[in-house]
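To whoever is on call:

I kicked off a structure prediction for a single chain this morning and the downstream step that reads the tokens threw a length-mismatch warning. I double-checked the sequence; it's 273 residues and nothing unusual in it as far as I can see. Pasting both halves so you can look.
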Amino acid sequence: MKSSLSTFLYCHYSLEEAIQLISIAGYDAVEIWGGRPHAYRNDLREHEIRKICHLIDDLGLQVALFNPAQINYPCSLCSPTENIRMDSVHYIEDSIDMGVKLGASIITVFPGHTLYNQELDDGWERLADSLDRICEFAGHYNVLIAIEPGNKYQTDLINTTIQAVDMIDQLGCDNLGVLFNCGNAMIVGEDTSTAVEHLGDRLIAVHVNDNDGKTDQKLIPGQGQFDFRSLIHALRLILFEGFISADLGWDYTINPDPAAIETQEYIDNLINQ
């Protein structure tokens, strides 16, 4: 296991500056945020992409994954309005193209939330169709799609790893897996060890942050109530060899360096115990 940090923490910096600061903080990899000003679809020109890739290589970093901007953005894979849903699918496809160019082999997707009076079954089937299209598109790039279960404030379709696995089993897409977000898991009441064991090799990415068990505070690990030692133990049991990516909250973005360093030291200490 290796440590990674989302460039979102440095959302007030250019992508190049964010990558450099993440390297200085001691991380093994970067998780590239697909929002502005970093790597929103079609914003980066080819020479800019090449420059960023060279920077990542020169710093000895890897790209853990590419995370398109989705929550609270104009993207809904379960929308009952077909042109909105299909535009959202195309947005993820464009993000896959961007992520691949930047060196990512994993692209994250988020379930989204149904509209008021939209039946959950309708939202589920529309989401399933969207994911099926996205996985087919991703297959041409040989990349994995990681669906992230969210807390109740973010989605009413896939809140648990069990629901995520149900979706994977329904679609039967070999390139669809799960991103386990420990903060969301704690809010919805999932047992970490059970969830990780249930996922097994369908677990392809991990997000770490902390909270009080009630709201999605995205705190520095160790500042809330999540049991990170249980997480690391569970990951070792399933022989997880991917990245543990820190996904911290908006409150740290004004002065991100201390949060980045403290989080890296915390994760590194856990991994090396």
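Update from on-call: the warning came from a stale cache, not from the record. Cleared it. Sanity check on the structure: The chain has one domain: 2-271.
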